[in-house]
Structures are given as structure tokens and as C-alpha cells.
Amino acid sequence: MSSAAPKWKIIVANDDAAVDYKKVIIEDLKKDPRVELVDDFGAKDTSDKTPYPNVATAAAEKVAAGQYDRGLLLCGTGLGVAISACKVPGIRAACCHDPFSVERSILSNDCQILTMGQRVIGIELARNLVKQWLGHVFDPQSASAKKVAAISEYEKKAAS
């Protein structure tokens, strides 16, 4: 990561299916010098049965409003929180369970939100992917910028 990279403000949200991973990953984020702020917006224990769409959309709204630079959303598979977050205007969320997808979610798609599933990958892989995710920054001069702009334009058109 270049020295010009930002210090991230990150919101983490999860449902009851991802409490264990959330706790471990938040501790990693708090120790990472690339992170300025990390807030826990998710279920604190498995008895909290708040539906994943509620936590995912609430966290995504905070990212869309600029309160946070990025969001990390966790559930059983990572799919439900990704689908939910993408319903928030201006948000691009991707469910990634491998290093290449994490890289491309940022470099090709300027995703603000990474999602993962506790029931899908091991904790050490999840921790490693989050560390990699922090190091990627979208280049608005890249060839992908026009594609990201096309997504945004479609979203505006669909909303009108």
C-alpha cells in the first residue's frame, strides 16, 4: 500500500450467523495502522436475531452518507448482506472469498463494502482477505472508471 493511501473509517455489521468472525476481525482492524476508526454495528451475540437485511442496509446507508469510507458485512454466506447492501443507492458491495475477488472488487469496481460468510470460509482466510482489502485503493484514472461510472449512471436513471 502506498503512503498516500487513506486511513480508513470502517463500519462492521453482522447477523447472528457471523458473531464469532466479527469479533476476531474487529480486533484485527483495531490493531491495523491503516484503520483510523472501526465501529461495530452488528449483532453482539447469537441471541440477537436482527435480520441481516436490517443491519446490512443500515450500515450501507452510513457508508453512502460518507460517515464511513468502507463497510465490512458478515453473515452466514456473505450473500444476503451483499444483496441487501446493494439496494442502497450509491453502494457497490461484493461477496468475496478469495484474494483475486477482493482485489478486483476495489480495483475494477470501486466497491465500498466487502461481504463474507462465516459458514463459507475459515477464519484465517477471512482475516487475511480483510488485511488485503485494506491495501487496495480504486484509481479513478483507471480503465475501470468508465465502467463504474456506467453503473452509477444506470442507478440514477433507474431511480428517476
TrEMBL record:
<dbReference type="GO" id="GO:0016853">
    <property type="term" value="F:isomerase activity"/>
</dbReference>
<keyword id="KW-0413">Isomerase</keyword>
<dbReference type="Pfam" id="PF02502">
    <property type="entry name" value="LacAB_rpiB"/>
</dbReference>
<comment type="similarity">
    <text>Belongs to the LacAB/RpiB family.</text>
</comment>
<dbReference type="InterPro" id="IPR036569">
    <property type="entry name" value="RpiB_LacA_LacB_sf"/>
</dbReference>
<dbReference type="InterPro" id="IPR051812">
    <property type="entry name" value="SPI_LacAB/RpiB"/>
</dbReference>
<dbReference type="GO" id="GO:0005975">
    <property type="term" value="P:carbohydrate metabolic process"/>
</dbReference>
<dbReference type="InterPro" id="IPR003500">
    <property type="entry name" value="RpiB_LacA_LacB"/>
</dbReference>
<protein>
    <submittedName>
        <fullName>Ribose 5-phosphate isomerase</fullName>
    </submittedName>
</protein>
